[in-house]
Design brief:
The chain is α/β, with parallel strands linked by helices and 234 residues long. The protein contains eight helices and eight strands; from the N terminus they run ααβββααβαβαββαβα. A hairpin with a 4-residue loop joins β1 and β2.
Amino acid sequence: MKKTILLGLLAVSTIANAQLDMTVPEEVLAEMTKKESESFSYKVVYPENYDANKEYPVVLGLSGGGQTEDIVDYCYYVMYRSDYFKKDFITVMPIAPEGKNFRTYSATEIKAMTKEIRQNENATDEGWIVIGTSNGGVASFNYASVEPKLYDGLFAMPGGTPLVVFPEEWKKYKAFVISTGLEDIPDWQSFTKETADNIKETGVNVTYKQITGQGHVFSPEYDVDQIYKLYFER
């Protein structure tokens, strides 16, 4: 039953993404660099005063919908373009290969992706943050389940999971945030809330937030750092 409901929600979110005006200002597009890895392409943003001789933790941004390049660009614009990340994080936003979606990646594929990122970038082996929205929000739980020690923060905005067993390492994360816009459809809101409640029951310090005036995808006017401060201003 949960899988059927999830598939229905993802179909609705795909339609919602298709109806969005995903125009991204040229100056925002210019902040990203597109790179090719062995099995996927990605957009990357380096921190201010980037030092090629230093290792940095990664913000792994998993976008929604079909995770095409235009969707990745828009998700950076409204979700991953944070002043907090500009200081000491490399922001990596994968573009899904044609016919694939990171939501359905196997454990082997997930590990291969993060290994390629570490090979391509000056990335640490810990202290990453995984952030996902919609399809990417569902994927974020899978990524953090497969390699729980790689991350110390998770943000699903929105996102949920049918998983019922969760890693003990999640209890040590600096922030574990699950949020949804109050203008999102009721089924997405309930799926997100149910996930937050289920994980919280295992002892994980989950923050569940409902965002006034926001729908399934946040608008450019919303200050997403109001959410990320839960990690950076503990």
